[in-house]
Amino acid sequence: MLTVPFEDPDMMRESQFGATFTRQEDARTLNSAELKEAEDDNTDREEEEEEEREEDENDHPKKKGARKKKFSEGRGERVKVRRQEANARERSRMHGLNDALESLRKVVPCYSKTQKLSKIETLRLAKNYIWALSETLSAGKRPDLLAFVQTLCKGLSQPTTNLVAGCLQLNSRNFLTDHNGDVSFSGRPQYDSLYPYPNAAEMATPTGLSSGTRDSVKPFRPYNYYASYESYYDSASPESSSPRFEGQMSPPINYNGIFSLKKHDDQVEYSKNCHYGMRYCNVPGRGSMYRVSPDSHFPYDLHPRSQSFQSQDELNTGFHN
DNA sequence: TAGGCCATCTGGTCCT
DNA sequence: AGGACCAGATGGCCTA
């Protein structure tokens, strides 16, 4: 969101107390500091001992002020260098942490380069995402999208909820969170109950283009339903604050293991971030059970995974180990 | 201007 | 002893 890219050299130079380091400068500082420190150690120890001797002999030693000043400068310098080293390490550590967080941003739903989720929201969304996927695995069937999104948005701030809504092109009012952080459905019928998903046998149809009119082709249904859902409800909420996305999401929604949603005009970014391999990322014409008709206005591809789910026990074993 | 978010500094604690 | 980790403090930037 407001995060400045870590590669930004100007940002890297900015620090308090005049400490101006880039990463390279940090390394240089560390090397010179190590050499300097060895010298300073001996010098400081001698000065310290000498000073103690003088104090023992005379409670009011001559030139103590001057010596003390010299000692303080040497030691102060050394402490300063040590502190700078520690600061550099700490910066580096935090950069690593932020890099990891950025990686996490890319694999949770609603990744956007231009509108970054905050750190806390990224973690919350990731937690919800894992939870929602686990729930789906437990159920052993395709999830109700709205319920999925409700779980996804649980405890998220309104702006983030809007972001998720925007990613799905849904009206965020349908899954607002209450003051307890619980997501509540605002009274509209769930499209799933109106338009049930195809059953497992239907989902297993290789391409979904086998026969019949468009309405009779089950695998097309989700697209039509999503689109009708959106058009039906969007018109009823002109005040909706859900942001519109213009191709910056990648992958906007990546329901790994269930289905993936992506913007049509984001192929490059999508494939770049789709690092789970063929198993998770459908390639046109290869194992994709759902295909978008050319005239479909639904903004995303829907890519259900063909693999049957692993047993929950298997997955849990992986998690708990 | 207040509040949120962030990067950085800092000192303390823990671990190797 | 030195590095990693952590949490508090601080100041900058941005937005409502």
UniProtKB/TrEMBL annotation:
It is found in: Nucleus. InterPro entries: bHLH_dom, bHLH_transcription_factors, HLH_DNA-bd_sf, NeuroD_DUF. Residues 71-93 have a biased composition (Basic and acidic residues). GO terms for molecular function: DNA-binding transcription factor activity, RNA polymerase II-specific; E-box binding; protein dimerization activity. Residues 81-133 form the BHLH domain. Keywords: Developmental protein, Differentiation, DNA-binding, Neurogenesis, Nucleus, Transcription, Transcription regulation. PROSITE patterns: BHLH. Residues 61-70 have a biased composition (Basic residues). It comes from the Eukaryota. Residues 1-93, 301-321 are annotated as: Disordered. Residues 37-58 have a biased composition (Acidic residues). Residues 305-321 have a biased composition (Polar residues). Coiled coil: none annotated. One of its GO terms (cellular component) is nucleus. GO terms for biological process: axon development; positive regulation of transcription by RNA polymerase II; sensory organ development. Signal peptide: none annotated. Efficient DNA binding requires dimerization with another bHLH protein. This is BHLH domain-containing protein.
